[in-house]
């Protein structure tokens, strides 16, 4: 089965291992930071999140209800909100994903007790899982609750509109509901009755989701026509609206090309209606060349070999070529590159079995391996800060590469959460070109050998602070590295490291601090030279004060 079939089926059907002793390589690595070569400002929205009505994301993860014994603020899980305030404030995408294209936003407004109960898009795909709000959605978490959650997290809402099963009129009326001035329209009054009289000023709007699959099973040409229709007229109320088009499945360059061609068939002015082009990329196939089957290719979240470790990290690194390839194709028509890339779904997707509660469909545990995927991916976005203006890890809680896991009143942060916290100083900084020279790591695939970069990273400057983040992908070897600054000198330096002695290490409700960042000492040499030994299987942040 491929991913498209998986989504279509859902739509229609309604060893641990012991590590070798650690050693330090003799091989030197070198990182050159070229301060005179700026790339672009790192947009805070690159640290965005994704919340779908799927398994335990909304009901349990975020929404516990006002009467809950779980600590909450107006029904929102307090521990989650508290932790969201400790990582970069960013955009949060909702209500899907595939769910978005069967969601009627009118079901989620008005008095909660009067809202209808509806069959969730994912319900048919989870017959063996217990019944509950994840199957029959009571709509207690609707537009007002979501926007309140986002504001509590100090973020920005990003709403994904239903293109498959609602007409364009519903799209512009949802905008009217959210953004029309207090008291101006019937919908603004409805919004006010839900406790939000002032306009929500929602800026980001997704026009469909995965329209090549669950979002309508369209051709690129068919979608482009729908896109033009949906965006031909919408009310703005003084809020600059940023529309995001449903982009390709991974490396499908033809989807991008054909969409851009048809979008502009009546003139290049249509590019002005497209702010961002959404790319989705999941790291999931650890079969090392044995299969491309969507189910068979996946591996366990907790049990994997060292070769599978490398294969997954290699998959994460494909993000780089996806960005540059789609960017080049977009440039064939959008020569001035007015339209930017939005990677609004990314992360790891392992096979079922490690979820912390049976209702958590697509839920999975998250190890230090997932943390390295997060570090590699965020560093890739920084290196393309001129192209990528938003990204949303899938998904926030209890699903795929989550930052948080919950089960009733139990709550933990995953290693991926720590990467988001460690990388915070990059946000808003000026990304600068960084050259990494390090040995490649070779590993066994079924019929050949694979390679993955040994070290990868990115650098940015904010005022006189240089932030360098580096991932050492090697499962067993540390890497002694010289860090050279071109165009400045380091006066002092600090390091924070996320690593573990076991490549399967993860946090559990009983042992929530197995993988947590540690501060380590770092000295700056006489001539401003910095050397650092990056531990194996690690994500490191260096903070350098420039002299
Ligand atoms: O994140 C889970 C699903 O993956 C989303 O609903 C869909 O857009 C993608 O295929």
In words, what does this structure look like?
There is one protein chain. The protein has 547 residues and is of the alpha/beta class. Helices cover 22% and strands 27% of the residues. The protein is built from ten helices and 26 strands. The chain has helices spanning 3-12, 78-84, 143-152, 168-179, 186-193, 220-231, 253-263, 306-333, 368-383, 415-422, and strands at residues 23-24, 29-41, 48-50, 72-73, 76-77, 91-94, 118-119, 136-137, 156-161, 204-207, 242-249, 276-283, 340-348, 388-393, 404-407, 410-413, 430-437, 440-444, 449-453, 455-462, 465-472, 477-486, 490-498, 518-520, 530-534, 538-546. Strands 1, 2, 17, 20, 21, 22, 23, 24, 25 and 26 form a ten-stranded mixed sheet that branches. Helix 7 (253-263) packs parallel to helix 8 (306-333) and helix 8 runs parallel beside helix 9 (368-383). The longest helix has 28 residues, at 306-333. The protein is globular. Residues 6-27 have low confidence and may be disordered. The structure holds alpha-L-arabinofuranose (AHR). Alpha-L-arabinofuranose binds next to loops.
């Amino acid at each position: 089965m491929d991913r498209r079939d998986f989504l279509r089926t859902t739509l229609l059907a309604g060893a641990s291992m012991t590590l070798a002793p650690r050693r330090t390589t003799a091989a030197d690595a070198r990182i050159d930071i070229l301060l005179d070569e700026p790339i672009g400002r790192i947009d805070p929205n690159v640290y965005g999140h994704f919340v779908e009505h799927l398994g335990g994301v909304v009901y349990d993860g975020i929404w516990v209800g006002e009467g809950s014994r779980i600590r909450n603020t107006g029904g929102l899980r307090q521990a989650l909100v508290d932790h969201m305030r400790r990582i970069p404030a960013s955009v949060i995408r909702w209500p899907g994903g595939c769910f978005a294209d069967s969601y009627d936003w009118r079901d989620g407004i008005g008095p909660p007790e009067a809202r209808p109960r509806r069959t969730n898009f994912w319900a048919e795909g989870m017959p063996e899982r217990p019944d509950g709000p994840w199957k029959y959605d009571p709509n207690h978490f609707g537009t007002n609750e979501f926007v309140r959650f986002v504001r509590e997290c100090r973020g920005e809402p990003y709403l994904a509109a239903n293109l498959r099963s609602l007409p364009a009129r519903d799209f512009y009326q949802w905008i009217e509901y959210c953004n029309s001035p207090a008291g101006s329209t019937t919908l603004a009054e409805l919004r006010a009755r839900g406790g939000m009289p002032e306009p929500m000023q929602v800026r980001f709007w997704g026009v469909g989701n995965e329209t090549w699959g669950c979002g309508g099973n369209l051709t690129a040409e068919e979608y482009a026509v729908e896109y033009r229709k949906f965006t031909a007229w919408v009310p703005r109320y003084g809020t600059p609206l940023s529309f995001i088009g449903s982009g390709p499945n991974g490396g499908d360059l033809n989807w991008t090309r054909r969409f851009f061609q048809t979008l502009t068939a009546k003139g290049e002015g249509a590019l002005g209606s497209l702010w961002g082009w959404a790319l989705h990329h999941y790291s999931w196939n650890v079969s090392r060349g044995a299969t491309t089957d969507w189910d068979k290719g996946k591996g366990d979240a907790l049990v994997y070999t060292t070769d599978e470790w490398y294969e997954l990290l290699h998959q994460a690194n494909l993000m780089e070529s996806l960005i540059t390839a789609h960017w080049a194709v977009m440039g064939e028509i959008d020569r001035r590159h007015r339209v930017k890339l939005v990677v609004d779904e990314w992360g790891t997707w392992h096979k079922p079995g490690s979820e912390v509660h049976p209702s958590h469909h697509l839920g999975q545990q998250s190890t230090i391996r997932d943390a390295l995927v997060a570090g590699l991916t965020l560093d890739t976005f920084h290196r393309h800060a001129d192209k990528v203006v938003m990204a949303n890890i899938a998904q926030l809680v209890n699903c795929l590469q989550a930052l948080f896991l919950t089960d009733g009143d139990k709550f933990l942060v995953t290693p991926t959460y720590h990467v988001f916290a460690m990388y915070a100083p990059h946000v808003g900084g000026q990304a600068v070109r960084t050259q990494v020279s390090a040995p490649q790591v070779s590993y066994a695939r079924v019929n050949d050998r694979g390679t993955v970069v040994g070290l990868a990273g990115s650098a940015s400057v904010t005022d006189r602070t240089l932030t360098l983040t580096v991932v050492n992908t090697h499962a067993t070897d540390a890497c002694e590295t010289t860090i050279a600054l071109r165009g400045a000198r380091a006066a002092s330096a600090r390091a924070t490291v996320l690593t573990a002695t076991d490549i399967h290490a993860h946090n559990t409700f009983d042992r929530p601090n197995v993988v947590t960042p540690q501060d380590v000492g770092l000295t700056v040499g006489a001539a401003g030279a910095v050397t650092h030994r990056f531990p194996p299987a690690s994500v490191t942040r260096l903070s350098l004060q420039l002299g």
